[in-house]
Amino acid sequence: MYGYIKGIVKDIETSCIIxxxxxxxxxxxxxxxxxxxxxxxxxxxxxxxxxxxxxxLYGFLKKDEKDLFLKxxxxxxxxxxxxxxxxxxxxxxxxxxxxxENILYLKKFPKIGDKVARQIILxxxxxxxxxxxxEEDSKExxxxxxxxxxxxxxxxxxxxxxxxxxxxxxxxQIKEALKLLLNN
Length: 184
Known about the structure:
Blueprint: E1 4-12, E2 16-21, E3 24-29, E4 41-51, E5 54-60, H1 63-73, H2 80-88, H3 91-99, H4 103-106, H5 114-124, H6 138-149, H7 154-160, H8 170-183
Parallel strand pairs: 3-5
Antiparallel strand pairs: 1-2, 1-4, 2-3, 4-5
Helix pairs in contact: 1-2, 6-8
């Protein structure tokens, strides 16, 4: 129903953010709400989950994350709320675990038992590609490249990218990124 929404984060809760778009506050469930910063503007890609008793929005900063989410919820026995913890940490680690049939890794996540982990592997093994932190924006690519060359890992960089203003000059972005990485 919705492709994306662009708005300013007004509030952060344990499982969601409230995104203000033209005076309307949308409750958007996200994998890691604390990666967002109150007062910053974001473009969030959406998935609308509609059932008889529920209408929920799930949000993602990147289309790749949304695509992975859609593949995961297509697995029998997995719903949207169960999928979010899988996306909260190292997404490439989840993909690797699925492709290598690492059931123990998948069972670390809440509500994922042996049966569900096996079903995920059965349905998705070999069908997932690695999710890259690099966006199409060349300035962001440069920023990621500089941070990787300084020894930071993609997972660390992924967490702070949403907090960096894309309109700033590269030098300012690097300084801001380093401040955020040192404080984490």
